[in-house]
């Protein structure tokens, strides 16, 4: 088992300072800073307190949604149902609020169904060993269809945002309380990822799942847990989205599909050289939120923004694949 775990660690550079390695590991951080500086220079309103608050709030909801996806991809699998589960969460909340249910009940039901879809993915992919891409496309389609059916193909507006709206709109100076909670969540995730056997097993599964199983690690159970976590976090993000939009939106998930994969895969280059990780995802989310906000202030069209997002996704995929191949060639 030690051999499997050691293979997940990044090898130290041979010789002196490796400029290329340094640029790959920290390039995403430099890109984020450069983007913020450029937009602030071109549009000073970008750096206003109100806009920073909006960016952080938007990024916080996305960060919750993409956290579970990060570890699933780190384990060598995929989940493309996360955004549909979030959309379903918004519709469940809106439908129940419209019928007179309170926010605690509506939120709990939404999270429960997120858990159901996460466990369904886990059962089919982790336990029955069916192909993850096909399965999560199917379960995502099911979640999206249920979301559309709840509102009969349209959104469901409501007026009361309850305690979720209070949390969403609360601030400490210009920083949303939700952003502080997300930082705490990602801090806990970082400890689990880098300081426990749980995190080591996740990366070991991507390197050689059969070796992990032979070493006595319950790989199927771990993967089942990761899919369940992804479903729950997607639904929680859906609850916050419903409060943010004051409505349930059955088709909102489509806008998060490219963003989720881009944040995780592009973020996979940060620190761990081709391995998706929570810090990389968080930086990727902030980069995308800043990009969309700055692009809107500059008057970019939706198609222009989509082109940039797609280019970033392609870049992230290419860099992760290239880095993994190079790393394995050195083993």
Number of extended strands: 4
As for the number of domains, it is 1
Largest sheet: 2 strands, antiparallel
Q: What is the CATH class designation?
A: Mainly Alpha
Q: What order do the helices and strands follow?
A: HHHHHHEHEEHHHEHHH
The name of the CATH topology is: ABC transporter involved in vitamin B12 uptake, BtuC
Strand content: under 5%
Gyration radius from CA atoms, angstroms: 20 Å
Overall morphology = globular
User: Architecture, CATH level 2?
Assistant: Orthogonal Bundle
How would you classify the helix and strand content by structural class? mainly alpha
Low-confidence stretches are: 1-13
Helix content: over 70%
For the terminal residues, how far apart are their CA atoms? Answer: 16 Å
Q: Roughly what is the average pLDDT, rounded to an integer?
A: 87
**Main β-sheet, spatial strand arrangement:** 1-4
Distinct helical segment count: 13
Pfam families: BPD_transp_2 (PF02653)
Protein name: ABC transporter permease
Subcellular location: Cell membrane
Membrane topology: Multi-pass membrane protein
Explain the overall architecture.
By secondary structure, this protein is mostly helical. About 75% of the residues lie in helices and about 0% in strands. The chain has 13 helices and four strands. β2 and β3 form a beta hairpin. The radius of gyration is 20 Å and the shape is globular. The N terminus is likely disordered.
